Structure formats: structure tokens, C-alpha cells
Amino acid sequence: MQYKEIKNIYKDLHQNVVKIFSKSDRNARVNLTPWNYKNGGGGESAEIMNGEVIEKGAVNFSGITGKILPGSALATKVKGSSFKATGISIVIHPNNPFVPCSHLNVRYFELSKKIWWFGGGFDLTPYFPFESDIKLWHMSAKQLCAKYDKNFYKKFKNNCDEYFYLKHRKERRGVGGIFFDNMKLESKDFYVNFTKDVVKTYVDTYLEIVNKRKSKKFNQNHKDFQLYRRGRYVEFNLLYDRGTLFGLQSSGRVDSILMSMPPVVKWSTKKSALLIKYENALKKYL
Amino acid sequence: MQYKEIKNIYKDLHQNVVKIFSKSDRNARVNLTPWNYKNGGGGESAEIMNGEVIEKGAVNFSGITGKILPGSALATKVKGSSFKATGISIVIHPNNPFVPCSHLNVRYFELSKKIWWFGGGFDLTPYFPFESDIKLWHMSAKQLCAKYDKNFYKKFKNNCDEYFYLKHRKERRGVGGIFFDNMKLESKDFYVNFTKDVVKTYVDTYLEIVNKRKSKKFNQNHKDFQLYRRGRYVEFNLLYDRGTLFGLQSSGRVDSILMSMPPVVKWSTKKSALLIKYENALKKYL
Fold it and tell me: What tens digit of pLDDT does each residue of A248-263 get?
């Protein structure tokens, strides 16, 4: 399977996901922006705005060819000087604080005919945790993985907990999910099918949770807690996220890379008794 | 001059600055939090909240003793294994978008009796630039520097422009000011006097600008532009700021280190015609 074929599969999948999210939220406006990368290829960013459910969502596709920077992690892997990369990334910041934030990424990297790998995963960031939602999220991930390899789930779940960790806060970003990288032992077809299934499982499971929580009444205190906790999301993405930092360092399209930023965020160190109560309830899961 | 003496001078100066800012803003609530550092010493954080002028301000003092991490930049400078550091940092996020945001830092670092240096500076981040404010800011910095060394100003102004730069945006964080580091050729007394004067000049000049702009009427469009531009501040602090990254990596007190974060921030990639107009007016200065 050639890079181009994988890229086209992800491109179609991206279009599909944009449609599903748009249809799921009757008020949402979708801004589609195609873009070109300076060294070759490009992508399409779909920003979903001001929906009934989705306050801001980013559904991005990219398929780019780039030069490997000397001294970068990639440079140690190959003698060549260029890479191909294609993938989809999704971040949904819901309006209702009882609906969790979610994130997905799948990607294919190619340095040469022989050196390639797949990566990806999905994770959930609730503000007000519901035990049943979290169980559903992990169960879906487990059932998905079991279809492909009996060792996937445990490993990918641990990867996720290790990766989405704010060291300075001694806190996980959310309740996790799965995260995988450097996947290359099976065929490309195997991983293409697996990553397609990762996207499908993510969308189905997340929308199930959204539909359960989207009509729950909330007040300004709930909303403020969500805005405050979104600060952790920003801290993770700018301090630790390899995709974000790689994108910014390789002079990628800033608006697409930072489309994952929440629409509104609050930082405060003075905490009300209520905020502390909410935070303690959440921290049991982090 | 011993470390302890310098620490006490900065501590008194910190108290003074907190008083001046509190008095300048009749509605402001000040939360004072003394804290201890795990390896020795500590500090005091003053968070100024919900003022008439100051939406959120952080005025921090610290005087800490720490272990030098192997592999860190400090480790190459000395054989010993510990450092002493004391300093003041200030960030003011004003409520009125016509009042610029400002930042100051002065610090003393000691690795041994013979190896020590001073650093610091101040810089201004307007949202709606006023030519006369920016001229005043730079002129004050220039006059201050001229009292100490004829070469200071030009060098420190360039340092500032180079340091407060968002590479991924190809944009300066604000209109600059002065920035200096590794100052050790003169006596400690010389630098103590200089950094005290840096603090005084910063406070006087900033309050002069505040008083000129604080009563200017603004609407939600102006406020939204301020919240949007504050995103750049967050991006700089988490992606590039050496003080922030050093603090977080050395397990400093997170609430003090991230007290510089703005109280409310917005990110958006879809820009209105008005936002683009405001941004173009600002970008001429960045």
C-alpha cells in the first residue's frame, strides 16, 4: 500500500467525520479551510463553531511532505532527508460542562519504502466525571483492540496514561483511553483497518456520551469550572504535546496546529469552596 | 554583599510594589500567599484580583536554594551542586483593553562566592497601541539605562526584542522594553542599585500609562480582541519563557509560576473583519 492510497483513505474518512459531527449538532457552523504546506502537500482544517453541543471543534486532515531537520528525533532513524506524513486529528470542546472534551489522532509516517509506522489513539477529558461514561469509554476501547491483538489494549491504555500526564501538576490530563505509536510489525493494510476502526469507535462512543449528557442543565459555576479546567488542556498542549511542538517547530500552519486550543479559558489560583469540591471529585479519576 | 542581604532588599521592594499597586486600584483584592520551597527558602505571591483597573496581577517574590539538575544549563557553569536565587516578577493583566499588559522581572543568581550574576527587565504588551505610550515606555527605559552605562540601553532593548519573540507566529510578544542577563562585570552594589531602579522606573512609567488610559470607554469588541491577543501571551509563556519552563522543571510552586497566566483567554481562528482591522493596527508594532 502506497503513501498516496493511505492519504486518500484518511482524507475520505476526514470528510465523513466532519459530516457526522456537523449533522449531530444542528446549530454548528463549519469553516472548511484547505491549506498547502511549504514543502509539499497540505491539508484541510474543519473548525466547528458555536454549535448547540460543540462550542468549538477542530477536525483536521493533513498529508504533507517535509524535510527532516538535522538533530531532530527523525534524523536518527534514516539517511534520507525527507518524510511523508498523513493523518487526522480531532478535538471537541463541548459547550455543556457535563459533556467531556475528547481528542483523537491517527497518523501514518513514512521515511522510505521500508521505514514507516502508524500511530494514534483517543482520550477523554471530563470536567464532571460520570462513572458510567468512563466505563463505556474504556470498554469500547478494549473491545476495539481485542479485535486486532490481545496485547493491544493493556499496552495502549498504559501508553495513554503515561503520555497525557502533566508532570508539573502531577495529574493526568483526563481519564485516558488508548495511545499507540511506532506500529510497524503487521502489514500496512492491518494498520489502516485498525486506525479506521479507531476513528469509528471514537466517534460512536463519544457521540453516545454526548447524547446522554448534552441536555443536562448547568449553571455559571459549572461553566466556570469547565473554563478553569480547560487551562490544564492548554498547559498540556503547549508544554508537552509532541504533535503540537513538532508542528510548530516544523513551521506548520499555526491556525491548524493550535485549532485544538479551547475557545475560552480561565486561569485562577484563588479557588472557591465550590471549585475545590468539584476539583476533588474530578481528581479521583486523574 | 551577601545573598541574604540582596534577598532582603528584594523582599522589601516586593512589599512596597504590592502596596503601590493595591493603593492605585481601590477595588483590588490582594491575596498574599507565603510559600516554602522543598530544598530551602521560599517566597511570597501576591495575586491582585478584580480591581477597577487590574483584572489580574501577579507580584511575586522568591528566595530559594536548590539543587542543580545534572544536564541543566547551570550544571556546565560550576562544580558545586546547589544554587541560590532571589528575585521579583510582576505581570499585570488590566481590565480595560486600552491599558497595555506589562511584565517585569529582576533576579540574582549565585552558584558560589565567585560565580553570581544579575538579570531582569521589563516589557509592554499593548492591545490597542498608542504611539505616545510606547514612546514614553522606551524613553523611560533609555533614561534609566543612561544613568548606569552608555551601552546598556541599545543592548538591552535588542535583547528584549529577541527574547520576547513568538517564532511560530513570526511576531514579537509586545512592543518590548529592556532585558538583561548574566550581568557580573560590576559590583553587586552596582547591580542591586540598577535593579532597584529598574523596578522603580517600571512601576512609575506603567502607572503613568495606566492613568492615561484606564477611563477610556470600551465595548465588547475591544474586550474580545484583548482576550484573543492574551492567547499570544499564554503561547509565549508556555512555549518559550525560560523562567516559566525552569520553574516548572525544577518543581517550583505551580500556582506562583503560572500566576502570570491571564484570567480569561480566547482562541479563535475565524476572524471577523473588525478583529483583522485591530490586529493589523497592532502588528505594525510587533
Answer: 887 888 998 999 999 9
